[in-house]
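Board notes (copied after class):
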Amino acid sequence: MKRNMKQAKSGRMLPSFLALLLGSGLAFNAQANTSTLKVCAASDEMPYSNKQQEGFENQLAKILADTMDRELEFVWSDKAAIFLVTEKLLKNQCDVVMGVDKGDPRVATSDPYYKSGYAFIYPADKGLDIKNWQSPALKDMSKFAIVPGSPSEVMLREIDKYEGNFNYTMSLIGFKSRRNQYVRYAPDLLVSEVVSGKADIAHIWAPEAARYVKSASIPLKMVVSEEIAPTHDGEGVRQQFEQAIAVRSDDQELLKEINTALHKADPKIKAVLKDEGIPLL
């Protein structure tokens, strides 16, 4: 989400937004001093990362550094996590970014450390049976809490709900213009819209919603979307993604070290993700 714009069409990338988003908010710098793992982290991009180290990716960073037998040092960035690859990693200010899609063409990526997907989120007591974008109950809904530019938006267009939902979507950011600037749709806000009844349903990247679904004041149901949602053009929209760690393409030795650590630490990593409430696929 940290977070990265997910691949919405098979073989195609949509622009960045953050779930999605680019990266989870963390970038590792393992330069000359191999005894220290320096982590460039978003200072306020929950549930991934913050300065209080309350994000689940902060926890994963600690696990990884410990497994690699390195001292962890956070280097905070006030910019959104989507900028960590372009403004940190590729400018040699950091050496690793967590939470990118496996196979991101800009970098070399590690073995995936988890796989999850976009999910429908709605009140558990409504008696709804929503499994995918073809579910009949969606036809009677008018307000969808989504992130613009995400696979959710593509599918809203597919079911002819985008135009009717546009003003509601813009109201979530106070009708701010998104032209030439990044505006984050906070996942806790999107989930709270469902809790309050202002939104009929949400469809967002499950890892960034899970914490807020788990702590909601009413029972919520979270249903992960199918891997490829069918579309009229036959291409389909990808809604499930493997998350990996990125390094610069020439940092192959570091990549090997990270892969070894990920496999060794897998039980601890999975425990953190499950405690977070993230649906793992």
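Comment from the instructor: The radius of gyration is 18 Å. The mean pLDDT is 87.
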